[in-house]
Amino acid sequence: MSSISASLIEAHRDEIARLCAQTRVRRLDAFGSVVRADFSSERSLRNPWLRRRVEAERVPVYAS
């Protein structure tokens, strides 16, 4: 992971894991531009190729 948001995920990984465990989330992935340097919160997720991109680029944040 190389973006600012990815750094935030790393900084809060323990808190994210605790929240996931409390709410019985079995897996949480970060994907797309959130794990790349070109992250922009203004970009839309409406994209016909989204599922393929998610599968190709996802990075596990938590897995039980």
Give average pLDDT, whole number. 78
Proportion of residues in extended strands: 5-15%
- How many strands appear in the DSSP assignment? 2
Major β-sheet profile: 2 strands, antiparallel
Side by side, the strands of the main sheet go 1-2
Instruction: Give the tally of structural domains.
Output: 1
Count of helices?
3
Compute the gyration radius: what is it? 12 Å
Task: Categorize the overall geometry.
Answer: globular
Structural class of the secondary structure composition? alpha+beta
- Unreliable stretches covering 5 or more consecutive residues: none
- What's the helix-strand series? HHEHE
Write the layout of secondary structure elements.
Blueprint: H1 4-11, H2 13-22, E1 27-30, H3 50-57, E2 59-63
Antiparallel strand pairs: 1-2
Structural write-up:
It is a single chain. This protein is an alpha+beta fold. It has three helices and two strands, in the order ααβαβ. The chain has helices at 4-11, 13-22, 50-57, and strands at residues 27-30, 59-63. The mean pLDDT is 78.
Give a short summary of the structure:
The chain has 64 residues and is α+β, with helices and mostly antiparallel strands.
Name its key features:
single chain; 64 residues; alpha+beta; two-stranded antiparallel ribbon; globular
